[in-house]
Amino acid sequence: MSTNTTNEGASKEQQTVTQSEGGANGNQPKKKKRRGSLGIILSLIVLCAIISILSPRFLTLANLKNVLSQATVSAVISVGEFLAILTAGIDLSIGSILALSIMMMGIFAVNLGINPIVAMLLCLAVGSLFGLVNGLLLTKLKLPHPFISTMGTKMIARGLALAVTAAAPISGFALSIQYLGSSSIGPIPASVLLVVIVYAVMYIFMTYTAVGRHIYAVGGNVEASRLSGINVDKVLCIVYTLSGFMSALAGILLVGRVNAAYPLAGTDYETDAIAAVIIGGASFAGGVGKILNTIIGVMIIAVLRNGLNLLNVDSAYQTVAIGVVIILAVYLDVLRQAAAKRA
């Protein structure tokens, strides 16, 4: 009886790992998977075409460079959200972790005069540690869903970010800290090159490493993953630690752009990240998604925001528009899941 159960679990896990190629169904033809990716790219192209017709300034080199630069923070922080959603979870704390990480970096680098490179490493350590706490709350306290644990740590991190400097911002960072967010290598912003490197590394990690395949497997079927010998708790801790790390890295980019750390930084960043990940084809059900499609989702959100600015749409209505996009993105996920069940 035990042997049969184990074999059945291993079989389920093998089917789940097959989904790591990015499809909603392990038996789905590759052509259909490619069609999904092309559909997301086509959506971005159509959106760009519409905005360029409505505002000729959109396609100017200066504006396109501005869109790319503005999208870099969201692109990096969305990587962590992608990993959480891939495991059928969610991380609501990424914006608050960003804020706490950069506030601590400001204290280390500006207030205490610590070496800027060391301060950046400490910033990444703070983000990673808070991410690990998210993972431990989920796996060791057995909280029912990461929505609960990350909602709690979201409030804790935001409160600490406000408390450590009595809500005062910190400015005057060293040029080495500002470099990634404000400098260019030739005509290309350093932040854009960093995003390319991050996504290339994550693609390799998710596609060619055992841990990457285990992340897909856990998202596809937790019990089957356990039965096949995968350490689910370890995988989840890795996922949320990486999410915290990406939040801190995104914070360093943000500080580089504005030369300041402020405790309300990152507010609502999780909503844009969730929308970008779902638009990119990932599913709240877990086990489905491609990291490279996430950057397309990020660009759709960035282009939409930029277009609304160019058209002088009131900021209140911009918020309404983004809210509509988030609802549509989740509805598309519901439709994808229904189509996958029928297939």
TrEMBL record:
It is found in: Cell membrane. GO terms for cellular component: plasma membrane. The keyword Cell membrane applies. Keywords: Cell inner membrane, Cell membrane, Membrane, Transmembrane, Transmembrane helix, Transport. Residues 1-32 are annotated as: Disordered. Its main location: membrane. It is a multi-pass membrane protein. This is Inner-membrane translocator. The lineage of its organism: Bacteria, Pseudomonadati, Spirochaetota, Spirochaetia, Spirochaetales.
